[in-house]
Structures are given as C-alpha cells and as structure tokens.
Amino acid sequence: xxxxxxxxxxxxxxxxxxxxxxxxxxxxxxxxxxxxxxxxxxxxxxxxxxxxxxxxxxxxxxxxxxxxxxxxxxxxxxxxxxxxxxxxxxxxxxxxxxxxxxxxxxxxxxxxxxxxxxxxxxxxxxxxxxxxxxxxxxxxxxxxxxxxxxxxxxxxxxxxxxxxxxx
Length: 167
What we know:
The chain is 49% helix and 10% strand. By secondary structure, it is an alpha+beta fold.
C-alpha cells in the first residue's frame, strides 16, 4: 500500500502509546554505547592522541547542533551526520587508509562521542524536533499528540515513547 492509499490517522490513533523501546532494550543499547565510548577512547590513546585534547574534542562534536538555527529538518540532518557510528567509522577508516593522524583521531572522537551519547540515552534526532530521537522522546511530553509515557526509564524517568503524527 503506498502512502497515498493509506487513510489518514485520527487524533486518537496518533496518541496511542506504542513504546519504541522497552527497559531491557534501552539498557542494552546504553551498555553498547558505553562499550563504544571506551573503545573509542582506547583507540584515541593508541593512535597517539593527547588526553589534554580529548575532552574538548568530544564536546566540540556538539557544535553540530548549530544546524538547528536553520530549522528542525536541517538541524536533525547536520546533528545526525556527526552523531552516528557510520560517520565516525568512515572518518577513522579514511584516516587509517591514507595515514593521516589527525583524521584518525577525529574518527575516534566521533565514535567515542556517539558512544557517550548513546550510553546516557541520547539518540539520533528525528526531523520533528530536537527532543525526538530514535530512542524515544527526551524530556517531558509537550503535547499529547507527540509523545506518551512508557515504562519507567530507571532513576531518570525521562525517556518517552515517540509516535510520529501522519501529515
């Protein structure tokens, strides 16, 4: 069935709670992120990176949020370009292939940063808003048609399920 053939969802259908991730899956994804953060930091060290620059470089990745100044669609694309495994691995691979130490280190920083974000529950951004991620909605629900509370997210309790509204 194509998009044009699908009937539009009603307001009540859009607010039905459908958890994107259960507690166990969220825990595994956070542990995976932690493992990748550690692996990225070790790779950074093994490739000769100076620890003095590691933390500033890790924080610099979030400059990619500047894309949100141009709107949520552009913001999500730019932010996600720098916050996914593929980009970090591609940058690392290019650095290794062409023996460019700075590019190698940049790849490890991108990998470690993405692992750090995933370990605390931050996901790739959806084009509907900064708080909407592939791991669920971050923060408190702002409108009943955008998110619904799912099973407790542990002590933080702030992870929400996101159900995109048909347009």
